[in-house]
Amino acid sequence: MLTPPSAPGGSWAESTLWDFFANGISLGVNPNAGVVSAGGSLYGTTYYDLDGEGCGRVYQLSAPTGSGGAWTGTAIYSFGGPGGDGCFSQAPLTVGAGGVLYGTTLAGGSGTPCSHLPYLSSGCGTVFQLTPPTTEGGAWTETVIYNFMGTNGDGAYPTAGVVLGEDGVLYGTTGYGGNATSGSPCNSYAGVTGCGTAFALTPPAAPGGAWTETVLHSFTGQNGDGANPGPLVLSSSGVLYGPTTSGGSAGVGTIFAVKP
């Protein structure tokens, strides 16, 4: 936490809210993503359960009840990886209605083209939902709402999170996959070709139904198009903006706009 100075020109004050080593590894290690704030708590993810092992966790940091007290850390979910769950979340979470959390995992899920990866990281990645408990102290409920397949034009390996649009639609990107494989400058990554996608996930009409994915754009890395897209932002007019880490006229990336 960085607290602004009380007078102009003063120094900002930094406070460590949680040390992932000093406080033990109950929340996992390697928090690669930022945190989001909801209901007075901070939420984030860790890439591993242990040092270089496990598929990571989702954690909650609760503020102290009194000034100067210690923050409380709780692991609210541990990713399972093999067997259909996600693995390796490295992007910030998104908070939806009712405190529901949405996020992505780089690997895991049921995407078979990516199954030759090492044991813990099989699968092409997922989008997941975490629903808070109905009673305080209860268990959060995780649901994999989409498994990236890396075939037939679908994306693979989402490195960025999702943004929430109207009617509960989620928008995001995958770093690889898509249908731009012919002549694509993107190297094959763990069995998947293509320069990535921008996608939309529409929630089911009835609770418990399947979410519907739509690929909004497949990046080609050719003729000025970008490749390997990053996180999106959604404008008030409904246009999605984001960067690509490569591609473009100079081959060093672009800023793009996609209108769903």
How would the blueprint of this fold be written?
Elements: E1 2-3, E2 13-14, E3 36-38, E4 41-46, E5 57-62, E6 72-78, E7 86-87, E8 94-95, E9 101-105, E10 107-108, E11 126-131, E12 141-147, E13 155-156, E14 163-164, E15 170-174, E16 176-177, E17 197-202, E18 212-218, E19 226-229, E20 233-234, E21 240-247, E22 254-258
Antiparallel strand pairs: 1-2, 3-4, 4-5, 5-6, 7-10, 8-9, 9-11, 11-12, 13-16, 14-15, 15-17, 17-18, 19-21, 20-21, 21-22
Protein model, in words:
The protein has 260 residues and is mainly beta. It folds into 2 domains: 123 residues, no CATH class; 98 residues, no CATH class. Helix content is 0%, strand content 36%. It is globular and about 60 Å long. 39% of the residues are buried.
Order of helices and strands: EEEEEEEEEEEEEEEEEEEEEE
What's the structural domain tally?
2
Instruction: Please give the largest β-sheet.
Output: 4 strands, antiparallel
Tell me the span between the first and last alpha carbons: 37 Å
Beta strands, count: 22
Looking at the structure, what is the overall shape? Answer: globular
Mean pLDDT: 91
Offer a few descriptive terms:
260 residues; mainly beta; 2 domains; 22 strands; globular
Summary, kept brief:
The protein has about 260 residues and is mainly β. It has strands at about 1-5, 15, 35-40, 40-45, 55-60, 70-80, 85, 95, 100-105, 105-110, 125-130, 140-145, 155, 165, 170-175, 175, 195-200, 210-220, 225-230, 235, 240-245, 255-260. It is built from no helices and 22 strands.
